[in-house]
Amino acid sequence: MTYYNSVFMLNKAVNNLEISKYIFLKAYAGDAIAIYKSKSWWMLEHSEIYPLKNPVETWKLFSRENFVYGLNCLRLFNVPFEDDFDSILRESCESCESACNFEVLMWYHCFYRHFFEKSEIVSVVSDVTILKWLYYSVYSNVVDGMCYFEKAFYAAVGVCDDIKILNFFLSVIPQAKQDAFLKACVLGHSNHCFWFLKKGCILNSEAINNVLMSGNLELLKDIMVIRPRGVIVNVPSKRTVFYYVFLNIKGEKKKSEFFDKIMICVDYLRNLGF
Q1: Where does residue 144 rank: exposed (0-12), middle (13-18), buried (19+ CB within 10 A)?
Q2: Cα pseudo-dihedral 229, 231, 237, 238, rounded to 10
Q3: Each residue's pLDDT tens digit, 230-245
Q4: Which domain covers residue 162, as residue numbers?
Q5: Quick check: is 31 in a domain?
Q6: CA-CA distance, 88 to 101, in Å (whole number)?
Q7: Is there a domain that residue 108 lies in?
Q8: Are residues 219 and 147 in the same domain?
Q9: Counted domains in the chain
Q10: Cβ density class 105-143: b for 16+ within 10 Å, e for less
Q11: Residue 234 and residue 153 share a domain
Q12: What pTM was computed for the model?
C-alpha cells in the first residue's frame, strides 16, 4: 500500500494526518520486513521505526529483492549488519529476478568497500560480466585478491556448466589449471576432465589415481585409453581404499556404495595387468 493510500484511508477514519502517520509508524516500529511486505515503504524514511528487531534479516531481504531504496534507508539510519556482511552480500547473488544482481553488488562496493574487498563473493557469482568487474575493478589492487579467484575456480570445478566462466578463470589464473584438473578427476566429472585435457593439462599418475578414487569406471576406461606411454598406474590396496572412503565420505550407506565403486575400478585395472 503506498503512502498516499495507507495514510489517506486511516486519515478518513481519524480525520488527522499526523495522528494517522503516528499510528502507522507505531504499528510497524522495529519491523522493516513487515513494512516491505505491506509496500508502505514511506515508513522506512522515518526514524520512529528504528532500531529494527531483525536487522540482519532485513539486510538480507532487501539485498535478495534488489530493493536499493530500502538499502539506502538502512544505511541512512545506521542499521547494523553485525558480523554477517558476507552472508548478506551473498543474498544479492540469490535474487529472485536474476542469477546475480549487479546493481546491488555495486551499491555495496560503493558504500562498504572495506568490507566488500574482504568478502569471498567471487565464489558465488555465476555471471561472467560480474566476474570481470570484480577482477578488473575490485580485486586487482587488493592484497591476496587473486586468492579469491583461485578458490572460486576450484569451487566451480565439477559444478559449473558455463564454459565462459571456466574460460575466464583459466585466463586470469592459469597457474591453477593443473590443480583444478586434478580436482575434476577426483570428482569423476567427465566433461570437466576432458575440457581440462584439451586446455593442455597433464594426464599424469596423480590424475589417473584421482579418477580411480572417484569410482567412475566409465571415465577411468576412457582415461586409460589415452594414457601417455610411461605414465605409471598405482593400484591401491583394499585397505588403502577403505581408509580413503572412511576419511572422505560421510554416511554409512554412502561409504559402502563408494567403497564398492572404487573396488570395481581397482579390479578393472588389475584385469588389465596393473
Answers
A1: exposed
A2: -70
A3: 999 999 999 999 999 9
A4: 122-172
A5: no
A6: 13
A7: no
A8: no
A9: 2
A10: bbbbbeebeeebbebebbbbbbbbebbebbbeebbeeee
A11: no
A12: 0.80
In this predicted structure, what is the pLDDT of residue 2?
47
Residues 160 and 243 in one domain: no
**Are residues 230 and 268 located together in one domain of the fold?**
yes
| pLDDT of 96 | 44
pLDDT of residue 24: 77
Q: Which candidate, 43, 41, 36, 87, places its Cα nearest to that of 58?
A: 36
Do 196 and 165 fall into the same domain?
no
Residue 132 has pLDDT above 70, yes or no: yes
One domain, residues 160 and 185:
no
Which amino acid makes up residue 267?
D
**74-82: long-range pairs with CB below 8 Å, 24+:** 74/32, 75/111, 76/45, 77/47, 77/50, 79/32, 79/50, 79/51, 79/52, 79/55, 80/55, 81/55, 81/56, 82/55, 82/56
Mean pLDDT of 185-192: 96
In a domain, 76, yes or no: no
Structural domain contains residue 101: no
Q: Which of 143, 141, 138, 165 is nearest to 154 (CA)?
A: 165
Residue matched to cell numbers 549487479: 102
